[in-house]
Amino acid sequence: MKKIYVASSWRNVYQQIVVKLLRSHGHEVYDFMNPPSRSGFAWSSIDPNWENWTTEEYKAALEHPLAIAGFDSDFDAMKWADTCVMVLPCGRSANTEAGWMKGAGKEVFVFQPSEQEPELMYKIYDGILSSYDELAQQFRQTSEV
User: Fold this and answer.
1) Domain 3-143 CATH class label
2) Where are the chain's structural domains?
3) Any residues with CB less than 8 A from the CB of 43 and at least 6 apart, and which?
4) pTM here?
5) Mean pLDDT, to the nearest integer, of 46-70?
6) Which among 2, 10, 52 is positioned nearest to 28, based on CA atoms?
7) Do 2 and 29 form a contact (C-beta atoms < 8 A)?
8) Using CA atoms, how far apart are residues 111 and 37, in angstroms rounded to an integer?
9) Tens digit of pLDDT for each residue in 31-48?
């Protein structure tokens, strides 16, 4: 059984399906949308006008208790996990999370169920999976080792 961090975007329609599939194979999975003992972090919880912030307002918001709690929850889960599945399409946070996890010596897989712009640096990761069947096969094999 693996401890898996699923990195993705709040707007990604595949994220919840991936969480369920990995759990169905017996893995422990951190779901940033539904973290244990709290709700998922959203900038709009700090300020409904967050999309219009200046850089200074953004920097100040990083020190808000909700931002600190959200960061701590996700970063603690990144440290806890031994594997990351980055579900495309995603944004800067998921790429930062996957990069940190690979740099920390953890396994990282990219799940790309639909066509995306190619990214050369994804070559540093342990694999690019392109279908639910391929994802299930990868984690079925690793769960039996």
Assistant:
1) alpha beta
2) 3-143
3) 50, 61, 67
4) 0.92
5) 97
6) 2
7) no
8) 27
9) 999 988 788 899 999 999
Q: What is the per-residue burial (b if ≥16 Cβ within 10 Å, else e) of 46-66?
A: beeeeeeeeeeeeeeeeeeee
Say if residues 83 and 4 touch (Cβ distance below 8 Å): yes
Tokens of 121: 């640096």
| Residue count of the chain | 145
Structure tokens at 53: 């912030």
Only one residue has tokens 């799940």, namely 111
Secondary structure (H, E, C), the chain = CCEEEEECCCCCCCHHHHHHHHHHCCCEEECCCCCCCCCCCCHHHCCCCHHHCCHHHHHHHCCCHHHHHHHHHHHHHHHHCCEEEEECCCCHHHHHHHHHHHHCCCEEEEECCCCCCCCHHHHHCCEEECCHHHHHHHHHHHHCC
